[in-house]
Amino acid sequence: MSGFSTLLYKEVLRFWKVGFQTVAAPVMTAMLYLLIFSHALAAHVEVYPGVAYTAFLVPGLVMMSMLQNAFANSSSSLIQSKVTGSIIFVLLPPISYRAFYLAYVLAAVLRGLSVGVGVLLATMWFAPLQFAAPLWIVVFAMLGSGILASLGVIAGIWADKFDQLAAFQNFIIMPLTFLSGVFYSIHSLPPLWQQASHWNPIFYMIDGFRHGFFGVSDVSPWQSFAIVATCFVLLSAFTLGMLKRGYKLRA
Amino acid sequence: MTSALLVQRVAKRFGAVQALDGIDLEVRQGEFFGLLGPNGAGKTTLISALAGLVRLDSGQIQVMGCDVVADYRNARRQLGVVPQELVFDPFFSVRETLRIQCGYFGIRQSRERDAWIDEILENLDLTSKANANMRALSGGMKRRVLVAQALVHRPPVIVLDEPTAGVDVELRQTLWQFIRRLNRDGHTVVLTTHYLEEAESLCGRIAMLKAGRVVALDTTANLLHSFSTHALRLRPAPGALLPAALLGRAENKDGMWTIAFDRFEEIEPVLAELRAAGCSLDDLEIGKPDLEDVFVRVMQGKAEAPA
C-alpha cells in the first residue's frame, strides 16, 4: 500500500473500531430530532406543497449529521494525535502534504457518508421519501462532507487544546448547521434572516441536497452547486497551503 | 563513500532561543555515533531537523546523500527515528501499528514484510504482545514498539533519541543487543542519551553539544584520553595530613583527595611520599577515565575540544 492508502485505511479503521460512538450514536441523535420535531410540528407545518414536514426534515437531518461527523472525524483525529504526540508517525514517513490532506478528508467524507446512510435508513421508515434527482444527492453529500472535512483539518491543526476545538465546533460549526434550514425553509424567516441565511454556505448544501429528494428547493440547485463547489475549492486550497507550510505540524 | 549524515552550517532559532547555532557534523556509514549534551543543548532539535519535523533557518542536512528538504521522500526512507516521548496510537494492536507503519513507507503486504515484522517482534521480546492493544502495554513495552516502528522499513540510518529513558535493565540489554546487531549488519546508529556509560560502551565517535553548538567531536577513545586521566583517589585517616609535596597536584572533594596520572608507574612515587610522611589511609582506589568526567569538563569549558 502507498502512504496515502495506508493513512486513509488507518483513518477509516480508527472511526470504524469505535463505530458505536462514531456512527451509531449520531444516527440515534438524528432519529430523536426527527421524532421530537415531527411530533411537535408535523401537524402545523407544510414547507413544500405535497411534502409532509417529517419527509422534509429527513434530508436536512441526513445532511446535518453528515456535515457534523465529517468535521468531527478529521478534527478529532488530528487533535488527538497532536495532543498524544502520535502525529509523529505520520510526519516521519515520506507522505506528501497532498496525500496527507486527501487521506484525512476522504476518511472524514466516508464517515460522513456512513452516518448519512445510517440516518437515511433509520428515518426513511417514518416518512415516504422521493429521490427526484439522485445525482444532486450524491454531489451535495460529497461536496458538503468534503468542505466540513477540510474545516476539520484546519481546526484540528490550528487547535492546541481540546477546548479550542470544542469552541470551533460549538460556536462556528453548530450554529451554521442549525441555522441553515435543516428544520425549516428560509422562506418562513423574516427578510433579514432570509438575507443572512444566504451568507451561510451550509444553507446551500442542505438546500441542494434536499432538491435531490423532492425536486424543489429555496434556490436553484445550480446556484447552490456553484457556491458549494467554490467553497470546497477555496477551503481545499487554503488547507493545502497550511499543510505545505507545515503550519503547527513542522516547526 | 556517501556520508550517512551530513550536517552543514545548520541553524535554527525558536523565538529568543538559538536552538542550533551553525552545526557542522558528518556521520560515516556504519558508525555508532553518540550525540550528547545537557537538556536544551539542541540534540532533539537536530534530530527533528534530520527527520523533517523542524524547518531550518539556514544550512543543509543530507541523509545518505539525500537532502532532507529537496529530496525529502528518499531522505525519510533512509531514516528510522525512535522519538524521545512515549507516544502511541491507542486504537491499534502492536501488529496493526507495525503494519500501518510499513504502509506509510510504501511497503506492501507480503510474506517478506510479515517475516520482518515477526523478526523485529522476536528480537524486541514483543511476540507475546503482538495482538495486544497499545493501551494495554507497560511503558517499557511501548518503548520497544517505538523502536520496532522505527525499524519496519529497514532504514540504513537509525536515530535513537534517549531510547532507554525510564526503561528497566532487562530491556536495555535486549535493546542494545539488537541495536548492536543491526550496527554490525551495516546500519548506522545515532544515539542520544543521558546515560553516559551507555554512550561510552556503545559509541565509536561522540559529538557533544552545548547551546546549539558542537563543543567536542572525536572518537570515544580520543575524548577519554584527551580530557580525562586515571585518578588515584585516597582518603587520609582522621588526623593524617597529605604531604605538602602532593598537595599541589591533588584536588579535595568531601575529604577524598584525587591525584590524576597518565601511567601506572606514577603511582609508586605517590605511595612512597605517603609512606615517608607517615600518612595512613582509610581508603584508596584507582579510577579509570570515564565519559562523565569528560562531559563535565567539556560542559564547564575546562577543556578545549577538538570540535
Low-confidence stretches of chain B: none
Structural class of chain B: alpha/beta
Report the sheet with the most strands of chain A, covering strand number, pairing sense and barrel closure. none
How widely separated are the two ends of chain A? Answer: 29 Å
Tally of structural domains of chain A: 1
The largest pleated sheet of chain B is described as: 6 strands, mixed
Element order, helices and strands of chain A?
A: HHHHHHHHHH
Q: Write out the strand line-up for the largest beta sheet of chain B, numbering strands in chain order.
A: 6-7-8-3-9-10
End-to-end separation of chain B in angstroms reads 22 Å
**Radius of gyration of chain A (Å):** 18 Å
Strand content of chain A: under 5%
**Which term fits the overall shape of chain A?**
globular
* Count of alpha and pi helical runs of chain B: 11
- The assigned structural class of chain A equals mainly alpha
CATH architecture of the largest domain in chain B: 3-Layer(aba) Sandwich
Strand residues, percent of chain B:
25-35%
Number of helices of chain A: 10
Question: Which homologous superfamily in CATH is the superfamily of the largest domain in chain B?
Answer: P-loop containing nucleotide triphosphate hydrolases
Task: Using the coordinates shown, work out and report the CATH topology of the largest domain in chain B.
Answer: Rossmann fold
Q: What's the topology here?
A:
The complex is a heterodimer of chains A (251) and B (307).
Chain A lengths: L2 H14 L2 H23 L11 H32 L3 H4 L5 H27 L10 H25 L3 H17 L12 H7 L3 H14 L6 H25 L6
Chain B lengths: L4 E10 L2 E11 L4 E5 L6 H8 L7 E6 L2 E2 L4 H6 L1 E4 L11 H11 L6 H13 L15 H13 L5 E5 L7 H16 L3 E5 L3 H7 L2 E6 L2 E7 H8 L2 E7 L7 H4 L2 E4 L2 E6 L5 H11 L3 E7 L3 H9 L8
Parallel strand pairs in B: 3-8, 3-9, 6-7, 7-8
Antiparallel strand pairs in B: 1-2, 1-4, 4-5, 9-10, 11-13, 11-14, 12-13
Helix pairs in contact in B: 8-11
